[in-house]
Write a structure and sequence with these properties.
It is built from three helices and seven strands, in the order H-E-E-E-H-E-E-H-E-E. The chain is of the alpha/beta class. The chain has a three-stranded mixed sheet, with no helix packed on it. Strands 1-4 form a two-stranded parallel ribbon. A hairpin with a 5-residue loop joins strand 6 and strand 7.
Amino acid sequence: LAQHGVPHTVIADNAGGHLMRTGAVDVCITGADRVTRGGDVCNKIGTYLKALAAVDNGVPFFVAFPSSTIDWQIEDGADIPIEERGAEEVRYAEGLCEDGKRRKVLLT
């Protein structure tokens, strides 16, 4: 969005519902991991709660995705396999430190 001059704000994942309820959100745009030929959308686990909050608060909700995301073999979203990830992805975070070195830290 920034590269195209679109005003936007990146927020903490779970702040969405609260900000929508207080009127601080104009529109909610998410990505998609897979879209069925019938139009059902599958994304990360938190996206469903954002969609519910948007509907509940009258905030327009859009999904942006490239056409390569469409799975023409699947009609119904219930048939999309849900990716289950290892516990390590929740227990650790990885990123660049102030010294420029990449480090992995234990969260839980």
